[in-house]
């Protein structure tokens, strides 16, 4: 009997089609979302999705609800690992499954679920490179309608495979030289010229700016590993890659940078999930503007 394949980073549309045909335990998640219209992603899912895919809603499924225990602060606080595991079991996810996540928004949202599964101790999770657009271009089948009710799964938490950094840790190490903050927001927001969401404009002192969209080539897929490695080396300019802590506005779009570093061959780096929205919520924390 052939050994089951495991995809821990990216998976192509052709590889996903082969995986479906193999009968290997598999669950696909559609994470499409729109911050301005929180219901739009589910409507997109209902219109067309990969057959059998489960819909994962950023606000309801991948963030803690108001009043619930949260593992981070910010506009999209992480749920506790235990609450996340309950949701995974409720949609039928099992510990023996390969997970594949995708969206329609350039990995802006599905990276969140990829990271959360790693954080829950599940290594067999991959981002569909190029998203639903690549799936359609490869002739992949589509389905419509509402999600089907699944039988409960048996997913069990294991030791985290990725590092979550708290706001207190970021603040404590701010001037230590032991962390390199990489901010995934657009340049204008990073410089503090505009701030459409959070109450304070600017960035964390010492942060480097790499918009998450810089990881994606014109065809919608991640850039080649060698190019990503060269770009991150240029950004870090001699800083130790293992010191990197990723952030954005609310900890969601920071993940494509984190994933891209791994695609480039760097060791896993840390995520500050509370990100700018949590950092700037306390006036005692320093905020700077400019390049």
What does this structure look like?
This protein is α/β, with parallel strands linked by helices and 291 residues long. The chain folds into two domains: 10-137, 3-Layer(aba) Sandwich (Oxidized Rhodanese, domain 1); 167-279, Rhodanese-like domain (Oxidized Rhodanese, domain 1, 3-Layer(aba) Sandwich), CATH 3.40.250.10. The chain is 28% helix and 10% strand. It is built from ten helices and nine strands. The chain has helices spanning 13-22, 40-47, 81-90, 110-119, 131-137, 167-172, 187-191, 225-236, 255-263, 275-279; strands at 10-11, 26-30, 54-55, 98-102, 125-128, 180-183, 208-209, 244-247, 270-271. The strands form two sheets. It has a five-stranded parallel beta sheet. Strands 7-6-8-9 form a four-stranded parallel beta sheet, with helices on one face. The longest helix is centred in the last third of the chain and has 12 residues, at 225-236. The radius of gyration is 19 Å and the shape is globular. The termini are far apart. The relative contact order is 0.16.
